[in-house]
């Protein structure tokens, strides 16, 4: 039996898996994320959410291929890639891959050292750029990511604490396509982290359990922990927070549209051609900074990370 306190109910294995698929379909329909005659590229990391998402979309009858970016985060990346490849090979699925170091000459630890910024900053920037490019090059209608309710509630919590209105304006489960960028969808927003882990176990999906070693000290983890405490004494709080925001608040931030939205993007990157607010896009600037940099040892806050 799996209990879902938010729904105040217990489920047997089959009904639980049906619940997960139904909730995904409900999110897709409610936010008009995807049609069955469209092709979607699922950004897979090797973790539970993205592999479960790929599995669920296929079961629901969507045309879904996978895309994996090798980030070069030591043994963690090696193990993540192995899980993704095994998942795809076992099921005969199409998986596209880009390795940052092989293709672009840098990895996330080196980018973090060169830019002197948190690793997630250059990692997120690179992933967004590569997801967009892979989707457009492959003629996909949308990119799907495995962000779940816990992720979205934690990001919303952080953005609200600091009233980051530009980010609040764009914190939607679907972002429509615009020139040079594919549609972005998050079909798991109605499901929690615990539910996704249970789904993978029941469905026999083998995923990388360890967290990214470079996430240590990430504010996002602190927000998640704080929300978990609130949820423990008030089941349903995360769902009420996030969906209440979507229903009653997000539109109020529409005027805070970020500078990088359509209005500001008047130029195309002189190097790669993506719409950008400056002459060279952020990814090509990162390429320039990391060019020729020696690979750095993988360290987190000064400690070498075992790989
Ligand atoms: S992989 Fe990359 Fe995440 Fe690791 S460095 Fe940060 S952003 S935590 S989803
Ligand atoms: Zn560029």
What do you see in this structure?
The chain is α/β, with parallel strands linked by helices and 307 residues long. It has one domain: Rossmann fold, CATH 3.40.50.620. It has twelve helices and twelve strands. The strands form four sheets. Strands 5-4-3-6-8-7 form a six-stranded mixed beta sheet, with helices on both faces. Helix 2 crosses helix 9 and helix 7 crosses helix 11. The protein is globular and about 55 Å long. The two termini are 37 Å apart. 38% of the residues are buried. It binds Fe4 H S5 (Q46) and zinc ion. Zinc ion binds next to helix 12. The site of zinc ion (ZN) has 8 residues, from helix 12.
Features:
two-stranded antiparallel sheet, binds Fe4 H S5, six-stranded mixed beta sheet, 307 residues, 12 strands, alpha/beta, globular, binds zinc ion, 12 helices, Rossmann fold
CATH superfamily: HUPs
Instruction: Give, in order, the helices and strands.
Output: EEHEHEHEHHHEHHEEHHHEEHEE
Count helical runs. 12
- Hetero compounds: Fe4 H S5, zinc ion
Total of domains: 1
Tally the beta strands: 12
Strand content: 5-15%
Q: Mean pLDDT, nearest integer? A: 92
Question: Strand arrangement, largest sheet?
Answer: 5-4-3-6-8-7
Structural class: alpha/beta
Named CATH topology = Rossmann fold
Q: Percent range for helical residues?
A: 40-55%
Question: Which geometry do the CA atoms define?
Answer: globular
Short structural description:
This protein is of the alpha/beta class. 47% of the residues lie in helices and 13% in strands.
